[in-house]
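Attaching the record inline, Q. Sequence:
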Amino acid sequence: KNLFEISIPRGSSLILTHDPNGLFPGLKSVPPDERPPVVSVFFAFRIMLGIGFFMIAAAVFGAWLWWRGTLFETRWYLRIVSFTWWTGFVAVIAGWVVTESGRQPWLAQGILRTADATSPVPAASVAGTLALFVVCYGIVFSMGIYYINRLIAQGPQGRALEDLVEGLPSRPIAAAGAAASDAMSRRH
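Structure, as predicted:
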């Protein structure tokens, strides 16, 4: 039961059938043994969507602050966005949960069930391999988080925006384009 929703009348019909009056089967029309786990898909989808809208709102608000010329003086905004850099990773993982949980119990819809594709490898071997992957990726991820947080805490080095050399592009893409065109002109 949704306590709050933003709905677009006939929106799902239009997306799924390309017809605003189109009909599509609901979850109750699917046999119970073929239904995906609803709770994990429900919450993961909302987490993914919530983070996505938060990131869009933060970007639009940041663009507005930049347009007003107060982006770098708005400390509270900079502090908030400096602590939310990881939310994109959470949104991606939530999307993965939606995709993988939402297709259960099928690997290929109507063709191959998950139960039919299980490995003959003993569960202890799979658990050991999974544990090693979790440990290795946990170490790499932790080191990455530590490094990124250090970079964020240090901030830009020096007076980067004020010390631009006259005549050099201040945008990386423009600098790359200038270097490429210089190299091409020297070749001919």
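The chain has a mean pLDDT of 85. The radius of gyration is 25 Å.

More tomorrow.
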